Structure prediction request, 204 residues.
Amino acid sequence: MSGKAEPQGTMRLLVDFGPLVVFFATYKLAGAGLHAVLVATGAFMAAILISTLAALISFRKITPMLWLSTILIVSFGAITLYLRDPRFIQMKPTIYYLLLAGFLFVGLWRRKPLLRWLFGPVFPGLSDEGWLKLSRNWGLFFIVLAIANEILRASVDFDTWLTLKVWGVTLVSFLFAAANMPMLLRHGLDPEKKDSVMTETPVE
Prediction:
């Protein structure tokens, strides 16, 4: 059975960032404290499952990053709800970033641009060298994000952590993606389609 094209633009943003926005909004609406964290975590889990199901029904294809994010959110969310401990849902981004970084650096060691497998056909014309450099850049960026998440998790309250996670990390990720564009264009990226890849920021 042939699948439809992967979601792009607005639809891609809804699939990738919608659950995170639901997490943030539910926490704010639920008040504060442990009760709000648990309610928001439950909403986060439901939102990522709905997002994954919607992507599967609409496009008959789910990106590896969405699969990984869904598994981690549901797993760490369930532990958070069972133990009533917010630290576990806060640990999820660190595990996610480190797994992606490890995956990319294994690919670099084998001279295989595994980021191409994660992203799919969204960088038309990009050479193998360009993919390898992009994999290296994102791998290093993920390590920085993992370290930053652990520092924030240990030093600020949940409200501040969540705000920085949703808005700060998202903004930094888009800026990082934009900063890579000159390198991508030097390595064969089709400039006519560069706007379509600006949403490819694998951060969750």
Q: What stands out?
A: DSSP finds eight helices and no strands in the chain. The chain has one domain: 9-197. The first helix runs from residue 9 to 29.
